[in-house]
Design brief:
Length: 364
């Protein structure tokens, strides 16, 4: 029961994110009805913004006047848009009106900015990013709370110090064995607002699936776990799965930091795409270990079975992680320094290793 509560507590934010996506689809139905209005106003607004930039470049106005004029233009067009939206459909609620205004001001990169106001959808490192916009203070980009989904290719090594993810002696199928993790993570800047260093910490649900080479299955006998050739028919799939609750901590270093000014203070600009390298560690608690086998018997009828493994897996896991990222892409290598399997497992390799990528980042 406790395991189910843990899993549901980690998956609940994902469910909420998809519910929010459904709401956004409904909002989009409204905004499509006024696209013809906002497109025309957007062209006019951009033309006036360009004229202000030109006057600043040729020295006609200073930076303060540039900021003032751009704010006046933005405010005027926001008022025009709202009036036309109200004329089109008075019953549109505030969310719909805000979505319409954002569709005018937001750039293709999902960024709306002027010198005093910056709003950006997450620039964290993942393939798919879903995050509400931050406020105008650059400080808000230097801290985040996210639900991160990652996927890695998994293998076992004979030597606990080996960092070779392609070790063939493991008897595992390289490319088929994999790890899936959902992590609730906080990120905070270390030191001053210009510091290139960040710390990440959180709580994660991790599922490691080992698939032995063809014709082999995990089996138990005399309180021992081992690999053997399958002899009860035609094997379709065999896997060994470990479920962990892990506690990761990681330090990130921004290699090419860029900076911005706000209210007289200098900040590391968290909106920019920048190179990062990271290093950290994690400790894990084994929640469940199971063997799953699917096959066709001698009569060619499909069969499957599942066994819970209690004795052959170490209850605790400790390892290190190294990563490199740029923009929305984050690649990592994880190495389990403690053996996954204990002395009751007769296996050629017992230490886990994986290379992977963050595939989704959902802000909360």
């Amino acid at each position: 029961m406790k395991r189910k509560l843990i899993i549901w507590s980690l998956l609940l934010p994902v469910t909420m994110a998809f519910a929010q996506s459904s709401l956004q689809n409904s909002i989009n139905d409204y905004t499509q009805r006024i696209d013809s209005i906002v497109t025309a106003e957007k062209a006019k607004m951009n033309s006036e913004m360009d004229m202000v930039d030109a006057r600043f470049e040729n020295g006609t106005i200073d930076a303060g006047e540039k900021i003032k004029q751009k704010k006046e233009i933005a405010g005027r067009y926001e008022k025009i848009i709202n009036e036309k939206v109200d004329a089109e459909k008075n019953k549109l609620d505030e969310i719909t009106r805000t979505a319409a205004v954002n569709s005018v001001f937001r750039k293709p990169s999902d960024t709306l900015k002027d010198e005093n106001n910056v709003r950006v959808f997450s620039n964290n490192r993942a393939v798919v990013v879903l995050k509400k916009s931050n406020d105008g203070n650059p400080e808000s980009y230097l801290r985040s709370s996210d639900l991160v989904v990652s996927y890695g290719f998994l293998n076992l090594t004979q030597d606990k110090g080996s960092f070779n993810p392609f070790e063939d002696r493991s008897e595992m199928r390289i490319g088929n064995s994999h790890s899936f993790e959902i992590q609730a993570r906080h990120e905070r800047q270390i030191g001053s607002y210009t510091s290139p260093f960040f710390v990440r910490y959180g709580l994660a649900y991790r599922s490691d699936t080992y698939m032995p080479k063809k014709s082999k299955v995990f089996a138990e006998g005399e309180d021992m776990l081992y690999l053997e050739n399958f002899a009860d028919g035609r094997l379709k799939r065999s896997k060994f799965r470990n479920i962990y609750l892990t506690f990761p901590v990681e330090v990130q270093w921004t290699l090419n930091p860029e900076y911005t000014e706000y209210n007289g203070k200098r900040y590391l600009d968290g909106r920019k795409k920048q190179w990062r390298i990271g290093a950290g560690a994690y400790v894990g608690i084994n929640a469940r270990s199971i063997v799953k086998v699917k096959y066709h018997n001698e009569e060619d009828k499909f069969r499957k079975y599942k066994n819970v493994v209690d004795e052959s897996v170490n209850p605790l896991l400790f390892g290190v992680k190294f990563g490199v990222s740029y923009g929305n892409l984050n690649f990592f290598l994880k190495k389990d320094l403690t053996p996954v399997f204990n002395d009751k497992a007769v296996l050629p390799a017992k230490n886990g290793i994986q290379i992977g990528i963050d595939i989704a980042n959902i802000g909360f």
